[in-house]
Design brief:
Elements lengths: L1 H14 L6 E2 L3 H8 L10 H12 L2 E2 L16 H13 L10 H17 L7 E5 L2 H17 L6 E6 L4 H9 L7 E4 L9 H13 L3 E8 L11 H11 L2 E6 L9 H6 L8 E4 L1 H4 L7 E5 L2 H8 L32 H10 L1 H23 L4 E2 L8 E6 L4 H12 L7 E5 L2 E7 L7 H15 L1
Parallel strand pairs: 4-5, 4-6, 6-7, 7-8
Antiparallel strand pairs: 1-2, 3-9, 8-9, 10-11, 11-13, 12-13
Helix pairs in contact: 1-3, 4-13, 6-7, 6-12, 8-9, 14-16, 15-16
Length: 446
């Protein structure tokens, strides 16, 4: 059975380079066939694998080198091997005692991440199912640390470019809808520190309790990085928890240019990262780093007599003490194995390549007279639209680009107008494929 599955997987990965970037053909009959309940008697694996193969090829091909929509997630093959091992050994890692060696492997990667972001030895990381859960834990931790058990009069601050998971997390964390303040942005769509400071002081004068500011290290629409140094200054002056949502852009910290762009992130109280973005891992791999491990623990730890005594060993942490999860999969191996097998430099080089490609795309598209590109890329995301025309023209341009079958982009409303987004972050999106995408875009625009 393993050989049959491996054959399917290797063929599927090889086919990504030639497959269309999205495929919805003959979807109706396939969906109808998948609605059947499982039979009383088993079905042969070969036939089931054919069904899985057909199903996996439909929709957006996020593993395709031509996929540059939303935030790509290519999924490293070796990380899939790590997951296969983790699922087969099926050891429990929510608490350290049942699998101390595996927990130590995961903890070592988290310590490495804290070190990469300049966080102190008192910091703690935890892997999550994604950035949304990391943002939720960060907001709950900030609420607990700054407001205590009574928090209805608390206020938090975001920009209009913040990821929607921040607002969703605030609601789930029990904050009233009017507790979230939207701070204005500058011409580059970055949070304005002066407006932030003024909003905080207005709320204090009204008897409210400001407690949290959320800055972005790579916004979802344009990839911009808020002025993290100035925002952390304001947070320190006003005694606010400063959380940085670096789900998209945080891992550019591994590069020299990224460290310049993200300067100030090392002063954050907490940081969201998505290894399934910037480290090219499979979906379902998020991360939260917290400067103060005890604050993270205070917001999440719960005791039960039927569980082993809580670990206070920083090298063998109980991950359940720092997360909403008690039962969890062993996510650490899908980071540990690729990083040790390929080496950190391979990831640094790949991220540097994405920065180079984004700058090249911006420069070449800027030379096309039919396109408007108002913002140079801060990281690896390029936005553009027709220089003249309506949102309908933008949608038509996107349709013409997609008609090639070789590249798939997305769009977003920015400042009242629709822009096309090209986010270059898949490890399979090398220069040859991105050059081809630029040729397709310029031909469609002309």
């Amino acid at each position: 059975m393993g050989e049959e599955v491996l054959s399917l997987v290797t063929r599927f990965i090889d086919d990504r380079y030639h497959a269309p970037s999205a495929d919805y053909s003959d979807l109706g009959p396939l969906l109808a066939s998948l609605s059947a309940a499982p039979a009383s008697e088993g079905t042969g694996l070969a036939g089931l694998l054919k069904t899985i193969d057909r199903a996996a090829g439909k929709g957006f091909d996020t593993a395709n080198p031509g996929f540059a929509a939303y935030i790509p997630g290519g999924g490293l093959y070796v990380a899939a091997l790590a997951d296969f091992i983790a699922c087969c050994v099926n050891r429990y890692t929510g608490i350290a005692e049942p699998a101390p060696a595996l927990v130590a492997m995961e903890a070592s990667v988290l310590r490495w991440l804290c070190d990469q972001f300049g966080l102190p030895p008192s910091s703690q990381g935890v892997l999550t199912p994604g950035g949304s859960m990391a943002n939720l834990s960060a907001i709950v931790t900030a609420r607990t640390a700054r407001l205590g058990e009574r928090f209805a009069d608390g206020t938090m601050y975001v920009s209009a470019e913040a990821h929607h998971s921040i607002l969703k997390s605030a609601r789930i964390a029990g904050l009233p809808s009017d507790a979230v303040r939207v701070v204005s942005t500058d011409a580059s769509l970055r949070m304005d520190p002066a407006s932030l400071r003024a909003a905080i002081r207005r709320d204090r004068a009204d008897g409210l309790r400001p407690f949290l500011v959320v800055a972005s290290a790579g916004t979802i629409n344009t990839g911009m990085v808020d002025p993290l140094g100035e925002i952390t200054d304001v947070a320190a002056e006003e005694d606010l928890w400063c959380h940085v949502d670096g789900a998209y852009g945080g891992f550019f910290q591994l590069t020299a240019r990224g460290r310049v762009a993200l300067a100030g992130i090392e002063r954050a109280d907490s940081i969201t990262l998505d290894p399934h973005k910037g480290l090219f891992l499979p979906y379902g791999t998020g991360c939260l780093l917290a400067r103060d491990a005890e604050a993270l623990r205070d917001a999440h730890e719960a005791h039960a007599q039927y569980l082993p005594p809580a670990s206070r060993d920083t090298e063998l942490p109980d991950f359940s003490s720092f997360s909403p999860e008690l039962t969890r999969d062993f996510r650490g191996l899908r980071l540990w194995l690729p990083l040790h097998l390929h080496g950190v430099r391979a990831f640094e080089d790949a991220l540097d390549e994405k920065l180079d490609l984004a700058r090249s795309v911006h420069d070449r598209l800027s030379a096309c007279p039919g396109l408007d590109l108002p913002w140079p890329p801060a990281l690896s995301l390029v936005t553009f639209r027709p220089a003249q025309g309506s949102d309908e023209n933008t949608a038509d341009l996107l349709r013409r680009i997609h008609a090639s079958g070789r590249v798939w982009l997305s769009s977003a409303p920015i400042g009242g107008e629709t822009y096309i987004r090209m986010c270059i972050l898949s490890h399979r999106s090398t220069r040859a494929r991105i050059d081809e995408a630029v040729e397709i875009i310029t031909a469609a625009a002309s």
